[in-house]
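Before a colleague's protein record goes any further, I have to sign it off. I want your independent view on whether this chain really folds as the tokens say. The record follows directly below this note.
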Amino acid sequence: GFIGPLSARVRGLFVPHTRTGNPLVDSVAEHQATPPEAYAHHFALVFYTWLPGFVLCLRDRTDAKWFLVLYLLCAAYFSRKMMRLLLILAEPAAICAGGTFGLLLDF
């Protein structure tokens, strides 16, 4: 089989200067890079509580926790590239925040 070339949107994730050539598509806000303020705005409490849960995943090394770490890192990379991919980061960040709250409840 033949796999065609990647679309301009996919190339834009890896090469920052790639544009579609269509000014209407290039001007859509969802396709722009995610501003740092968007994370605190959209994630609210999860934004402030995901880090201790992430460190907890690094402390006890199991396959499931390594998967979560890799998932979080990949999701964070891609969510930084395009505003519409911010939702990809919601799940691993919420799981890490849940680990933080679980740690607090056990304390």
